[in-house]
User: What shape does this take?
Amino acid sequence: NMTVEIHPTALVDPKSELDDGVLVEPYAIVEAETTIGKGTKVEAHAIIKRGTSIGESCTIGHFSVAGGLPQHLSFDPNTVSFVDIGDSVRIGEGVTIHRSIHEEKNTIVGDHCFLMGNSHVAHDCKMGKAVLVANGALLGGHVELGNEVFIGGGAALHQFVRVGDGAMLGGLAEISADVPPQITVAGRNLASGLNLIGLKRRGAKREEIAELKNLYRHFLSKPGNLKGRAEELLESSSVPKTELGLNFTKFFLSGDRNFARSRNLSKNKVTQEDF
Assistant: This one.
């Protein structure tokens, strides 16, 4: 294919599929059974491992590895599993994205995500669209991120954590509880209000923000069983009227973990969850 540009020092397996306009820079490695979409750039020293598919118009940064082996003690390397990266994804230097631990399953990075330098995406993560993961942030296995989530530098997310759409996790946050949509979390699972800057940036309407404020108070500022509270609210006459409010409420219906709670609720209360 005349329009694919491969530097002579790069190693590209003939059993890989490279679409028009793909550029592979010096010393990059592209293994067999990979696909790379139109106009994607694989920077020098990047490694695209077997079972990885990358969409169009992506940048795969220097020294990053897509499709590496899961860091799971009982993983059998003969398992056939995948990494699926969407379109217009930007991957910084030294980023690691691991394939699934399950036969024929995928780790997923959605369209328009930006993974900054040295961030890590473990096996079986599912990432929505336009997620931004800052430098050195760590996602454990099976983490699920909604759309337009922002994860601050050096934050660490425990395996199986869910994070709702539009949430913002502060730098160095330690997240072992599920994070509802559209809120800000800092430190150890501490909810600290709505992500108002993000909401305004995404054009949320006044009534949506007002409803979210009420729901935030209703759910996160007082103790109790949030799943039960959500079920009650959805069956009552005061069921949320906006799409954002409905999504926020429904987030509490699933998941096996606790939820991030408001500062004023968890002050000075040390529980088993803190260890």
The first strand starts at residue 5 and ends at 6. The CA atoms of residues 38 and 56 lie 5 Å apart. Confidence is low (pLDDT under 50) at residues 270-275. Helices lie at 196-201, 206-220, 226-235, 243-250, 263-266.
